[in-house]
């Protein structure tokens, strides 16, 4: 099966998800969180750095459970961060267009 390449939005969403999960992990070791969630340490590290941009639902659900995150709140946090990112990019483009003109 050939997988379609990820879009820029999907890559950004994966980066944001990883950052939110990493912040929620706080001072807890990645190894302890991964073990409790039933995933490999390598998988958790890849999710946190955005290398796995679209992790499986049950993986995200397990991490949310271990980190004490509500899935709805997690989805909202990712969406809010993406909105802020989109606004910042639009503003940068607007300012760049003003400088070039």
Spell out the helices and strands N to C. HHHHH
- How many helices? The count is 5
Helix proportion range: over 70%
Distance between the termini: 47 Å
Mean pLDDT over the full residue set: 87
Major sheet details: none
Model regions low in confidence, pLDDT < 50 over at least 5 residues: none
The gross shape turns out to be globular
- Beta-strand segment tally: 0
Secondary structure class reads: mainly alpha
Topology summary:
Layout: H1 8-25, H2 30-37, H3 41-48, H4 57-67, H5 71-100
Commentary on this structure:
- This protein has 101 residues and is mainly alpha-helical.
- It has helices at 8-25, 30-37, 41-48, 57-67, 71-100.
- The longest helix is centred in the last third of the chain and has 30 residues, at 71-100.
- The chain is globular and about 50 Å long.
- The protein starts with 7 loop residues before the first helix and ends with a helix.
């Amino acid at each position: 099966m050939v997988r379609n390449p990820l879009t820029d939005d999907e890559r950004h969403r994966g980066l944001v998800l990883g950052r939110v999960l990493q912040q929620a992990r706080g001072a807890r070791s990645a190894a302890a969180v991964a073990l409790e969630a039933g995933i490999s340490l390598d998988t958790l590290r890849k999710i946190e750095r955005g290398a796995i941009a679209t992790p499986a639902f049950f993986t995200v659900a397990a991490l949310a459970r271990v980190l004490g995150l509500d899935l709805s709140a997690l989805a909202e946090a990712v969406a809010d961060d993406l909105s802020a990112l989109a606004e910042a990019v639009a503003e940068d483009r607007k300012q760049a267009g003003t400088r070039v003109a």
